Hints:
The complex is a heterotetramer.
Chain A (H helix, E strand, L loop, with lengths): L11 H6 L10 E5 L10 H16 L2 E5 L7 H10 L4 E5 L4 H10 L4 E5 L10 E6 L2 H14 L4 E6 L4 H21 L4 E3 L1 E2 L4 E2 L10 H13 L4 E5 L5 H8 L6 E2 L1 E3 L2 H4 L10 E4 L1 H13 L8 E3 L6 E3 L11 H16 L7
Parallel strand pairs in A: 1-2, 1-3, 3-4, 4-5, 5-14, 6-7, 6-10, 10-11, 12-13
Antiparallel strand pairs in A: 8-9, 13-15
Helix pairs in contact in A: 2-10, 3-4, 5-6, 5-11, 7-8
Chain B lengths: L6 H35 L2 H6 L7 H24 L2 H26 L7 H18 L4 H30 L3 H19 L26 E3 L2 E2 H19 L1 H11 L1 H6 L4 H25 L18 H11 L4 H25 L4 H15 L1 H7 L17
Antiparallel strand pairs in B: 1-2
Helix pairs in contact in B: 1-14, 3-4, 3-13, 4-8, 4-9, 4-11, 4-12, 4-13, 5-6, 5-7, 5-11, 5-12, 6-7, 6-11, 8-9, 8-11, 8-13, 9-11, 12-13, 13-14
Chain C lengths: L20 H25 L5 E5 L11 E5 H21 L4 H24 L6 E2 H27 L7 H19 L2 H25 L4 H24 L3 H4 L8 E2 L9 H6 E2 L1 H19 L1 H11 L1 H6 L4 H24 L14 H11 L4 H22 L7 H20 L15
Parallel strand pairs in C: 1-3
Antiparallel strand pairs in C: 1-2, 4-5
Helix pairs in contact in C: 1-2, 1-3, 1-16, 2-3, 4-10, 4-13, 4-14, 4-15, 5-6, 5-7, 5-13, 5-14, 6-7, 6-13, 10-11, 10-13, 11-13, 14-15, 15-16
Bound molecules: adenosine-5'-triphosphate (2 copies) and magnesium ion (2 copies).
One magnesium ion binds next to loops of chain D.
Amino acid sequence: ASPPPTATPDTTAGTSTGTAAAGASDFLACMVSDEGGFDDKSFNETSYKGMMDAKSELGIQTREIQSDTTASYAGNVQSMVDADCDVIVTVGFALGDATQASAEANPDIDYAIVDFAYDAPLDNVKGLTFNTAEPAFLAGYLAASMSKTGTVGTYGGAPYPTVTIFMDGYAQGVAHYNEVKGTDVQVVGWNSDTQDGAFIPGNNFSDVAGAKQLATNLVSQGADVILPVAGPASEGGLQVAQESGGNVVSMWVDSDGYLSMEQYASVIPTSVGKAMDVAVTDAIRASFEDSFDNEVFVGTLDNEGVYLAPYHDFEDQISDETKAEIEQLKQDIIDGTITVNS
Amino acid sequence: MAEEPADDARRAALRDRGRRWATTAGSILLALLVGAVLMIVSDPDVISQYAYLFTAPQLALGASWTKVAGAYSALLAGAVGSPAALAATAWQAAPLIAAGLGVGIAFRAGLFNIGAQGQAIWGSIAAAYVGFAWSLPPVVHLLVAVVAGVLFGAVWGGIVGLIKAKTGAHEVIVTIMMNFIAASSLAWLLLTPAFLRPGRIDPLAPPIQPSAAFPVIYGQLHVGFLVALVAAAIVWWLMERSTIGFAIRAVGSNASAAATAGMNVAGTTMVTMAISGALAGLAGVMYALGPGANAVATPLSLGLVGSVGFDALTVALLGRSRPVGTVLAGLLFGGLHSGGLAMQSLAQTPLTLSTVLQALIVLFVAAPAIVSALIPKVRAPRRPALVGGEA
Amino acid sequence: MTTTHPTTLDVPLELDRTESAAARRARLSTGALMLVLGALMAWLGFGTSGDASYALSDAFAAVQLPTVALPGLPVVLVCALLTLLAGAGFVSGRLWGRAKASAATIAAAAIVLGFVTWAAAGRPFSFPVQNQLAGTIALATPLVLGALCGVLCENAGVVNVAIEGQFLTAAFTAATVGSVTRSITAALVAGVIAGVLMGAMLALFSIKYLVDQVVLGVVLNLFASGLTGFVFDQLVQPNSTELNRVPPISRLEIPLLSDIPLIGPVLFNQTILVYLAFVSVPVVWFLLYRTRWGLRVRSVGEHPEAADTVGINVRAVRWQAVLAGGVFAGLGGSFFTIGSSVSFIKDITVGNGFIALAALIMGRWHPVRAALMAVFFGFVTQLASQLQTLQTPMPSQFLLMLPYLATIIAVAGLIGRSRAPKADGVPYTG
Amino acid sequence: MNHTSGGLQLAGITKRFGSFTAVDSVDLEVRPGEIHCLLGENGAGKSTLMNVLYGLLKPDEGQIVIDGSPQNFTNPRQAMAAGIGMVHQHFMLVDPFTVAENLMLGREGGFVLAKDAARQRVRELGERYTMPVDPDAVIEDLPVGVQQRVEILKALANDAQYLVFDEPTAVLTPQEIDDLMAVMDRLRSEGRAIVFITHKLREVRAVADRITVMRRGRIVGQAAPTASEAELAEMMVGRAIDLRVAKEAAAPGEPRLVVTGLKVANTAGGIVVDGVDFDVRAGETLCIAGVQGNGQSELVDALLGNVTPLEGTVTLDGTDITRATPRQTIDAGMGFVPEDREADGFVAPFTIAENLVLNRSNQAPFAHGLALDLAEIDRNAVALREEFDIRAQSVHDPISSLSGGNKQKVVLARELSRPLSVLIASQPTRGVDVGAIEFLHRRIVSERDKGTAVLLVSTELDEVEALADRVLVMYRGRVVGIVSPDTPREVLGLMMAGVPLEDAQGAPRPGKEENHG
Ligand SMILES: Nc1ncnc2c1ncn2[C@@H]1O[C@H](COP(=O)(O)OP(=O)(O)OP(=O)(O)O)[C@@H](O)[C@H]1O
Ligand SMILES: Nc1ncnc2c1ncn2[C@@H]1O[C@H](COP(=O)(O)OP(=O)(O)OP(=O)(O)O)[C@@H](O)[C@H]1O
Ligand SMILES: [Mg+2]
Ligand SMILES: [Mg+2]
């Protein structure tokens, strides 16, 4: 459904985030979420933060709309066109078609799409993608080194490529550890051969209780380091870790969980970061500064679009040797000495 | 021989109809009022003004008014405020009408089809698959895709009828479970090579070919809406003028008398569920083949059909399981949906408010006594406006 | 004059019996099902290699029980054979009474053991038995409570399709109140009140305004989803640190009992809600079948006119039953947030209210049977979830369909037609 | 009669349902130690009046006075406390409950059920009134006669001084009726008052001390127990009624319906029809007599094809229809008037016209292909309304708006409006008033005279006597004997209780109510 193009730019969201630099511009940046909505504690929310950062940094106007159903994507993108947006950021692969159609119809507007890139690039669309397998590889290596039981675990919110890429990288990191150290650390919840693993029933990124049950299953099989890749439902893993009496730790994905999930800080050894906010801010800035290009952005360890977060409270528990190894691995990945399949 | 009912009987019927309309209007009004209260009490910014209610009442009332008026005028504008809005409402209404007709038919056979969701999912899968995977000449392609979707919906519904007829299993349980299975099936299919876009691994089917999409009439209004209206006409004929409808209504009202009169109750149950599923499947087809705001249909993906199966229940209930009523109820709720989207983007009022309104409207219509108690001029009709298993 | 005729019919008619059509159908479909599963298992069995190991304790359990390794091939084949035998017994109709029950039990055990063994054989991980039980309980707890709510309502003649809505409002209210007060007790009380209030809406509209009860249930579910969703979006989400940070619920360890190996920690080291759920089953049974109130509840659900003629206030009893049911639905709903220490999210109950409704119907409106059906569903769901982590050859999406398929098979093949209380869903106008 | 003066007075009672006045300023006096019969055709308002007395309905006008003090009952509990007990026209027993549970319902005592005390109470009451019942028997397993006994014990459990028996005998065997009369006698001699409602004039004349007749909600007069049946019938209906059906002797032809060795199980698997053989010939009426629940319903269901027999064969005009479906038996020329009209006979929300084509809705001339021919359906309805004197404003009214007798006329009209080989009519006049009975009986006889084989199932001996050419008595699923309709009532009564013909003829019959004539 397309609401009539009568709106004035949104102000409510802006005021809560801090006011822009003096001389607020009438440049309008807009964002369309996917079904998860901007409160998903995950990629919609992080992308939204990117737009808000751009707003305070550049003094621009913003506007956003949440999608409730798949079928409303096109209408929602169109309503942003109708609102005279200068740049429109859409979040998620599911908006790929709607974004493409809108971009083709409106060559004057800049578009950016998070977690998606077109096979045949469009002139006015920038894909923002992230090779999270790279930091997940490091996380897997770290997990293997930390495990006392010789078993580590992972689970996903749904078998989407943006999810399984983490799980796969993680398993490769563990395998690399085994290879280097001659150990036999096992991964529960992901099978690299079948590319299948443990997922929350109902493709549910918000079902924390279901995620908790799944994490409990992993732990019952001896997993003591867990990488949950399930958006907000990843909290289930943190809870299981927190209730385990120190036996289990759980990582976090997308952002640095030590900061965003601070009540669980003591069980988060590290996080697999995906700097969507930075990428979004950069894309908006480029459009604002008329330096927009359609080259696909791929977040890598190299360009810090993805990263392994600091160890924070676990600084002391991780041996210097491991830290050094991980630092070296990171360098090797950047250099291409080690390739992570994704 | 004059077969007219006595004059006062006819007058009573007319009066009843008038009261039913008044009750429905009253229900909508009451629902909007409750919605307004809800908006005010759940908005901390507005509520904070109420601290000054006695010193500066205009602050509280002004804030409330701004909030409510803003939301509702956006709702109205989004639903009927412009030709484009009307077209968007029709877009939303088409699948609701189709699925509502399906649920209504089942109601009239005494069956409670909670499974429209699953049937719509299969309808969308089949229609989308034909739409993107096959290449056929224009009109034929659309027809085949529609038929495929309707057929799959019919099969998914028919399975329930079969299980119920053969084993006596309660259709409520079976349809609930079939919904979950349909959703999981879609999730699985989307990751199989047949449904993946070449060279990609996102769970997003290829876009349907233009030849399989419903032609656009104006804005978001597409031929699918007309198909829904035609479906309503067919359902009317089927139920009121055909032997199948006769049997469905008889079985729904008194299965035992129907059996004694030689009707095949098990067979009728299966046929009814298949027809019901076919219509729900048609709703899925609307989502799969109906061009959206950008004149392009949304590709098959999880959540494509939204919660149409559950919305259809309320549509059928409000429409008293009758085709005309279902069309009107579908338009009303379609308007609430498209208006709700406008309300969200223009007035920052969560879309969930239209769900609340939808539930409240049906609730009040179902209990006319409440409406007449609260709005003195409105008198309750003698026959309640909602039906369950009644013919 | 006295009754001396030898002819008066004062004893139940003692008739020759044959198998009723329904019983025959149930027997044949059960038997056929066993044969199919047995054959499937045998076929799968020949491809089994290696041992299947069953870990009796969880990895981090305080007391470690041994891990049992069962040889895959023979165990699967023996299980297949047992299932086939039981199936043949059912189909042939040679089994009666206790033999039939034993055969069914053996077949059920063999089916579970056989398939899990097949799935676990030759895998790098062992199947965690204790966690299977613990997960079953966690999943079953809200279902049991929801089903009990339905048992109370429907035995009084009020169809309750709105369990889902009761769950949802209770989950929301409990989470919010818990977050504000930081008190589990306050949260549970609030959850119960929410469940009861939704029950009151059900009662008001069905008993007073005679609204079709199925219709009403559907609408109340929509209302609950809309209401919680709206207030969540508008009020709770923007203030989630104050309004949506659920306090942790602690486990209450029952001394001695919790030391029993394997089941002790599962059954006797649980949160208050789990204990409440399982205590509620006998309590509801007792209330319904052993008290004045229960007798009246069942009478108004079965034959309200009869109850009326002996001076029972039909509407009042129905109100009481629906409100009492609300208590259990409120507890069940609270489990989703408070009971699992999880913050509220929209539609957090993900259809569990409907599953509880299914358990109620499958359990034929009887509290104990309904609870068993809830546990059955919990068991299969947990099994499916657990098998995902074993790297079985079955795609995870198929595994996740398992509980729903199993329910359809159970209700179609084993249970069939079930009889609701006669006046269930019929408003009382007298 | 040893009781105080006073008694119970109903003064000017009026009860309206909407605009319809069911009871219209009725005065009635009931004295201790009398059996007061209340007569009236269906819908006269008898039950309504009694429900007012029992506190189930609130009168719009009028007053109830007991022993001089005015009462204002708002629920049955108060009426019970004032000494009123009632056996209702329809069973007020909770089927899945035991006898003891039914008896204790509403007067349970403590919070936790004292089942032993309740059992004890059932035994005591049973002994006291010589109506023993097993306190632990579940109601739905009991034969209707015993269920009625439980109802009576329920009414007596409160030591009520005023008892209302609303048609308690409709479901009893002649022997059970005798027993009930004896109990009523005994209660009367204890000084209690009984209001006895029945449609069986024979019973009225046997026990009544006084008779009050109601019509259309009003009292139309009193009668003495000595009044003849014809006089009573005329008072009830308001016109002279011919209680005997005029019919020629049958001229039976070829057997049309032949049943051999039929064995049928009920839904629970009990074998309720056990090796039944009979035939019905063209132009004759075979009556199946028997107490309700002796397999008649299942037998008829099997003939129609609603249930499949376990053994045996059924042929219709030489064609085997043992395993035919209802569709096939109907098409083969079987007409069927079901026992339970409301459950099996018609579809309540459907119009009269629709109900008149219920079993031929998909056939010519009422349908062409998938399309219904509404004009033809209407034509059919208008013609049948005329022919069968169906009193309805419009054939487009829902059948539910008709009175019981007219509903039954619709059902019969539907069945008789096509050529039949056999007509199976179960309890065709149950709950129908005298005027309509007359009409229905005449139509059945004329169908017989057309050469149709008529199989009539009835529990009413009066009806059996009136219509039968031969009488087949069924007991517990077996044929006790096939006898002539002239067989004495007592003998038929004993046969209905399972006594073979020879023994029944020889049995001495105690009892006092054989004073009819
Ligand atoms: N609850 C009610 N609502 C409306 N009409 C009613 C109600 N109860 C009874 N009536 C009508 O009142 C009239 C009197 O009914 P009542 O049951 O008292 O008759 P009755 O004399 O007992 O007949 P029967 O011999 O068939 O038992 C009937 O026309 C009946 O349809
Ligand atoms: N529920 C009701 N509400 C309003 N009017 C009713 C109701 N039930 C019956 N009536 C009216 O009461 C009158 C008597 O109905 P009823 O069915 O008792 O007829 P009846 O005298 O018993 O006829 P019959 O002897 O043929 O059964 C009819 O005019 C009918 O329309
Ligand atoms: Mg009547
Ligand atoms: Mg009566």
